[in-house]
Amino acid sequence: MCGVVGISGVENAAQQAFLAMYALQHRGQEAGGIVAFDGEDGRLHKGSGLVSEIFDPESLKGLRGNTAIGHVRYSTAGGSDPANIQPITARYRLGELALAHNGNLTNQRALRTSLVEDGAIFSSSSDSETLVHLMAKSRAKTVDDQVMDALSHLVGAFSMALVVRGKLYAARDPRGFRPLILGRKGNGHVVVSETCALDILGATYLRDLEPGEVVRIESNEVHEIGRLDPAPQPAPCIFELVYFARPDSSLWGESVDRARRAFGRQLAKENPISADAVIAVPDSANSAALGYAEESGIPFELGLLRNHYVGRTFIKPEQKDRDFGARMKYNPVRDVLAGKRVVVVDDSLVRGTTSRSLVRMLKSVGSTEVHFRIGSPPVRFPCFYGIDMPTKGELIGSTLEVHEIEKQLGVDSLGYLSLEGMVSAVGQAGPYCTACFSGRYPAPLVDVEEGLASEDGPAL
Ligand code: AMP
Q: Where are the domains of the chain?
């Protein structure tokens, strides 16, 4: 998963992109970069690590101009290859081109194979690079038409910011899997993955870019240049609301905090239990745990503290015991937990690694009962649209039944939110993509169907 920023018509655009990327850091911590354009002339700085590690005042000073795009990249299987760090830049026959992409294409292998057979040379394994080749190959006369032509070949999830010859373009795929928000900053415009990035910029929210909408932002005006295939129904990703987005953002017209509280309340209705305290697995489950506490009447307590300064710490071999990772990240508040029957709310259960360690942690400080409640249904299927998930066989919910998971985790009880309960708790912008829970994939999995990719999960 990733975060995307585009700035147009704002002085020191790179500085603004840098700030927005700070706010979007939760969407990707592996790497990042900014390309700034002074007229049609682009300058790029990118690297591995957190935004604060990649940029310093010197590197930002070199990125001059009023247009910029930025990208933060989530850790994925092929993630450490520096060639995959975005924005991607290229020079083609009409000039310079830069691209920042959030989402995953489901036909990238098919496209790549046919482009390579036609003589294209790829410099990365990133699916986003296909768009660069499609732009270069397009015979359309204007840049606008080339952008539309290139985008029309893509299947799957893409929210993109693109600069061609110094002009900013933004696009969302026809199903609108990933968010992209349009805002105003002074006389200029910004596009960002989440509204929390507007706040840090002091920008005002204009609207969500619509599914399939493609715009060019130039001379402080937003021009719609076209719509991609209007046939499919929108399918915004519900996992953004469950886990990925920040609770201070609004997505699909829905406050993320409110949505998570609604999940928590519904979870409490579906899975009641008698207990002394409700605690969250911080930070992503805080809102859902508050919702559970409100509905159940059981007091919400701060039972686990999360260390926010844990980076990519070197773990020595003797520290590689099964709970060390969780102990680095979470610490129990003993007085809150000792002698108590505790409901632990997490937003999702993926491999079960975190919860297994947390149960042992809570029992070791004297909790008498540990009841796990999950603010989403079992994750049973891989995501092909950009959420980094393990393969199907590694998903605990795809291989085991609830009573077997209870045993594996060592919990006194486990309860999930139902799929119907989750969808009905939000609903406004639906129907949502629920593929990771339901196995219903709204956009065709072209590479899987053509035998070019595994149905157990995407090769990211
Ligand atoms: P696990 O320990 O493998 O069951 O993962 C569940 C925990 O990871 C939960 O606390 C979630 O907040 C978090 N989580 C859920 N989905 C993801 C994801 N795609 N990438 C990283 N963490 C995740």
A: 3-235, 256-308+321-441
Helix (H) or strand (E) holding 77: none
Q: Which long-range contacts (CB under 8 A, 24 or more apart) does 417-420 make?
A: 417/263, 417/266, 417/267, 417/270, 417/271, 417/374, 417/375, 417/376, 417/377, 418/270, 418/377, 419/377
Residue nearest to atom 9 of ligand 1 (CA): 348
Q: Could you say which of 2, 196, 383, 436 is catalytic?
A: 2
Q: Check: CATH 1.20.1050.80 for 3-235?
A: no
Domain 256-308+321-441 has CATH 3.40.440.10: no
Q: Is 2 considered catalytic here?
A: yes
pLDDT per residue, tens digit, the chain (460 aa), is: 899 999 999 999 999 999 999 999 999 999 999 999 999 999 999 999 999 999 999 999 999 999 999 999 986 544 568 889 999 999 999 999 999 999 999 999 999 999 999 999 999 988 899 999 999 999 999 999 999 999 999 999 999 999 999 999 999 999 999 999 999 999 999 999 999 999 999 999 999 999 999 999 998 999 999 999 888 899 999 999 999 999 999 998 889 999 999 999 999 999 999 999 999 999 999 999 999 999 999 999 999 999 988 765 566 666 667 678 888 899 999 999 999 999 999 999 999 999 999 999 999 999 999 999 999 999 999 999 999 888 999 999 999 999 999 999 999 999 999 999 999 999 766 799 999 999 999 999 999 999 999 988 875 5
Q: For a substitution probing ligand 1, which of 238, 243, 256, 279 has the most ligand atoms within 8 Å of its CB? A: 243
Contacts of 141 (CB under 8 A, 6+ apart): none
